[in-house]
Amino acid sequence: MREKDERERERERERERERERIREKEREKECERKRERKRERKRERKRERKRERKRERKRERKNKRKRERKNEREKERKRERKNEREKEREIERKNEREKERE
What dihedral angle (degrees, nearest 10) is formed by the CA atoms of 8, 9, 12, 18? Predict the structure, then answer.
């Protein structure tokens, strides 16, 4: 009887050890899932920074083109005003010469 009880207790201890091994494996799996989620968040942050840099470069190129076009229009206006003034001066000189001839 005692032997039977002893064998039963031993089997119970063995089952408990097996349950503990299973729990340990589950804890390890959970730890690994947690690490994987952490790695994934890190990768996602990296991808997001990359996308943000790309958007920023695009904005900068757009703003640069805009500034260049604006500057070009301003230069063109200056040239036109200068030409206009030159024409007016030429007309005035012509008129002056006409007056002097009279």
Answer: -120
For the record, the structure tokens of 56 come out as 């920023």
| DSSP H or E stretch at residue 57 | helix 2-101
Q: What would the two tokens of residue 6 be?
A: 């002893």
Spatial CA neighbour of 39 closest among 50, 47, 28 = 47
Q: Distance of alpha carbon 14 from its chain centroid, rounded? A: 56
* Residue 87 structure tokens: 């024409």
Annotate 8-17 with b (16+ C-beta within 10 A) or e (fewer). eeeeeeeeee
pLDDT tens, residue order, the chain (102 aa): 778 788 899 999 999 999 999 999 999 999 999 999 999 999 999 999 999 999 999 999 999 999 999 999 999 999 999 999 999 999 999 998 888 876
